[in-house]
Amino acid sequence: MSFAVIVRNAITSFMPVKQGEDARHARRAFRRHVSFSRVVFIITIIFLFLPLLVLVMYSFNDSAGMNWTGFSMRWYRRLFTSRELWRALSNSVIVAVSSAVTATVIGTIGAIGVNWYRFKLRSYVQTISFMPMVLPEIIIGVSLSIFFAGIGIPLGLFTIYLAHTTFNLPFVFLMVMARLDEFDFSIIEAAHDLGASERQTLFKVILPICMPGILSGFLTAITLSLEDFVITFFVAGPGSSTLPIFIYSAITRRGGITPIISALSVVMIFGTVILCIALRNFLKFIAVKK
Fold it and tell me: Which of 65, 151, 215, 220 is deepest in the core (most CB within 10 A)?
């Protein structure tokens, strides 16, 4: 008998012995508990959320550096008293809402028109409408900047609004088109048989059925507009700084992430979580009412 076998027998002699079906259940439970997929899931969650925890912790650091010197709320006080930051945030909200509304209206009308009518350039219109989704953002930003300079439009909030409407439009178009692909056109025929005009069919039949896709496109457009930096960087002018540009400028001026930016990130994280929970509860409330 080898030395390894002797050691193994000595160790197992001190362990409780399980026989038969109990031993098989224990082995299966252990394998389920330490499965490869569960280990990968835990590592992924740690990789994603550990930087956020570090960000939250250092937003309460009394020092501006990475050395912990004590708990303090002064960065949050400076955050809520920074006029430049709130001006950038208001610019981001104005541009996001206005561009999302415009892109939603144009994208919805375009999707209904392309899906409803048949014309020669229909396939080309569908292909061209998806171009901003596949092109790199830096190409779109440079192209729009050259275009605005060529036609003499000064860079500012208006050019940011036009640029955000341009790259938001395909997302709304795609989501409404996906909703229309599941559309039962016999409903339209029934509406016409009941005497509804084309305008009444559009506003009372088609739009209500497409409303989930329209709302999804609108919310996606707002999200993309609020977080965009590359395209906004090329089409923004003096005094038209948005929140991503403000954060970038603050980092480049100070040579790193400042505690004010950390505090802003924490506020945005918790605000997003609260908004998602409220929206989820609201949708559940609507589902129960129906």
Answer: 220
Q: Please give the distance of CA 61 from its chain centroid, rounded to a whole number.
A: 29
Both tokens of residue 181?
């692909």
What distance in Å separates the CA atoms of residue 275 and residue 272, rounded to the nearest whole number? Answer: 5
Domain-located, residue 199: yes
| Residue 221 included in any domain | yes
Residue 287 bridge partners (DSSP): none
DSSP 8-state assignment for residue 122: H
Structure tokens of 93? Answer: 């909200």
Q: At 184, which helix (H) or strand (E)? A: none
Question: 189 lies in a domain?
Answer: yes
Do residues 110 and 129 touch, judged by C-beta distance below 8 A? yes
Q: What is the CATH number of the domain that holds 176?
A: 1.10.3720.10
Taking only the tens of pLDDT, the chain with its 290 residues reads 554 455 455 445 545 444 555 556 555 555 556 677 778 888 998 888 888 888 888 888 877 767 777 788 888 888 888 788 888 888 998 999 999 999 999 988 888 888 777 777 777 777 777 787 788 888 888 999 999 988 988 988 899 999 999 889 988 988 888 888 777 777 777 777 777 777 777 777 778 888 888 888 888 898 889 888 899 999 988 878 888 888 888 777 765 567 778 888 888 888 888 877 887 787 677 666 65
Helix axes 83-116, 243-254, angle to 10 degrees: 140
Does some domain include residue 91?
yes
CB atoms within 10 A of CB 186: 8
How far is Cα 106 from Cα 191, in angstroms, rounded to an integer? 25
Contacts for 62 with CB less than 8 Å, ≥ 6 apart: 69, 70, 71, 72, 74
Q: Name the residue range of residue 175's domain.
A: 84-238
Widest Cα–Cα separation across the chain: 94
